[in-house]
Every structure is written in structure tokens, then in C-alpha cells.
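Students often ask what a holo structure prediction actually looks like on paper. The answer is less mysterious than it sounds. You provide the chain, you provide the ligand, and the output is a string of C-alpha cells encoding the 3D arrangement of the protein together with flavin mononucleotide.
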Amino acid sequence: MYHLIKPLLFRLDPEFTHTLALRSLKFAYDLGFMSFPTTSENSIINYWNLSFPNRIGLAAGFDKNGDYVDQLARLGFGFIEIGTLTPKPQVGNPKPRLFRLPNQKAVINRMGVNNKGIDYAAKRLAEINYRGVLGINIGKNRETPNEHASHDYLQGMRKLWPFASYFTINISSPNTPGLRDLQNEDLLLKLLADLKHEQHLIQKEQNKFIPLIVKIAPDLNDAAIDMLADIFLHTEIDGIIATNTSVNRFNIHDKQINETGGLSGEPLQRQSLHVIKKLQATLNQRIPIISSGGIMSEQSVQDSFAVGADLIQVYTGMIYEGPGLIKRLASQSRHVQKRVLA
Ligand SMILES: Cc1cc2nc3c(=O)[nH]c(=O)nc-3n(C[C@H](O)[C@H](O)[C@H](O)COP(=O)(O)O)c2cc1C
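The corresponding C-alpha cells follow.
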């Protein structure tokens, strides 16, 4: 079905198509056209004391404000991540800011972390029916200097604690100038120490543990990946998402290739897998890793598990393969009993 309407959708502006798709999903949901996906009890997977009905999740950025959680859940995701959310709302970069590269099954985006802010999201999340695993991806406002970044992340944690199954700490969007510098040793050690400290405090207050997962860039050399793995062990970070979009252009020839922004989709997968493999060389499965980057097919899921990923997230795959991709990958991933390291 999706492949029939895709040529039509691909004639429209990409950001408009995204909004149209989400609104259509809500329309179908409101009319009662979307049934619950089936889950068999014996396929429940556990990480961080959370129960995942399958290993395939929605990546951040698709539903930035938590406006479509109930609807997206019906597509069969094992978990959903919303955000990135910042303390103050942000309009993001001027349009156009999202570009398709159909021959590469890729997109470039420079959205600029447009979102309605944590207060808006808290209101929306108080109204949803979804009771599955909900990740909330939090960030800092564009104008907040890196030295004060922890202040912004802490606000996100405090405000959204009642609604989160886990928090993702976004230090890797390429579209917030200087954000990726938070991956540098000194800044990162301080940031993660601050956030872990707060995590323990709120946990005691609220009697509820929320894991902290750090999302990293694919554009790191091997020494930097080793350093990050050591820091994550040292600071007892609960999980890692590898990776965000890339500023690398992978020698691709395409009329859109020179657009500024982060590249996602098929060409990203190799680089993301390399990051996971390198992290696992140090971590040896001591911290769960969520694979994000170029998951478009059953083969790419298998490739992620082969380098030691525990869970999977999809974004660009939905654009090229349609929403049916999720149930296909979920049913395949249910057969994965054990992680296999390459
Ligand atoms: C249009 C768009 C917006 C995104 N927004 C965010 C975001 O707000 N926060 C974030 O952490 N990642 C964001 N991402 C990155 C995705 O979550 C994902 O990590 C990346 O696209 C790689 O996965 P993919 O190849 O399956 O798309 C965005 C990606 C796209 C394409």
C-alpha cells in the first residue's frame, strides 16, 4: 500500500509530508481504524527493569512534542522516544530544512531542534493512554552555553520525570552549534556527573528509577569512542544510543548532498555499526546499546545485533519503507534470543 502512494508523497515538500502523515495517522486512529498490535507474553524483553514487547523503537525527532504517542504505538513499536525537548520552546532553522536523497535512501535535516518545550510536552504526556516504554529525549536550548548545559538537562529531567521510562541525553545533534563539544572529556564528565547526581536525588524523592541514556554522534574517531566508553563506565551511565545523524557525506553524489545538516538513512549504517562495535570492544555488553542509523530492513537489524546492539531505533526507514516496516522488523527481532558479538 505505502509503495503505491510513495511516489505521490515524494512529490510534496518533505516536512509537509511528515506533518500530513502524522495527521492522517491521527485521523485513522480517531476513526477506530487502528487495532492494537499483538504481543505474545513470552517475547517480552527486559532492560533497566522495563518490559519491551519487541526490540524495535521509534527514534527521536519523529514526534518531537509527544503529540502522537498513542497513534504511533499502534504501528507496533516496542518502545517510543519523543523529543528532543528543550526547557524553552524553539522554532528551529528557517525552512526548507529537510531534504530527501531518494537514490541513497537517505535524508539530510537541519531542523535545529524545533520543539514546543518541556511544559507543553508535560501537558500532552499527562493525557496519553500509552503505557508502554516511553523514552524522552532532552536537550539544551540553542543559546545556553555549554558550561551551563547541565542546567537545561536537569530542568528536563525534573519536569518530565513522572512521564519517562528513560531519558535520552542528546549531546549529538549536529544542528545546535557547539552541542557536540559536550562529547569532549572535561565537559562530558562534568555534565554526566551532574545528571547522575540528580538522578539519584529524584529517585530517592519519588521512589522511581529512570535510566539515563546518552546519544552520541557517528562522527568520532576511534580514540574518541574509546574515551567515551571509559567515561560511560566511570559515570555509570545506564545506556547508549549510537548514533545520531552524520555530518559526513560518504562520497555521495546527489543534487541535495551539499545541504547543511545531519545525514540519516542507509549510508549512515556502516558508520553507526562501527561506533557500536568499537564501544563493545571496551564495554563488552556491560551497558545496553540502542542502535540508530540506517535501519531499513531485516538485514540491517541483523547487522546491528551482530555487532552487539541490544535494541533498535528507526526513523528514515519509515520514510522509505513505510509504517509496515515496523511490524516486519518487530516480528523478526522477536526471534532474537541472545546477543551475538561479531
Ligand atoms: C528529520 C529528523 C529529525 C531528527 N530530530 C532528532 C532530534 O530532535 N533529536 C535526536 O536525538 N535525534 C533526531 N534525529 C535523529 C534520529 O533520531 C536518528 O538518530 C537518525 O536519524 C539516524 O537514524 P535513521 O537512519 O534511522 O534515521 C532526527 C532525524 C531526522 C531525520
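The longest strand covers residues 79-85.
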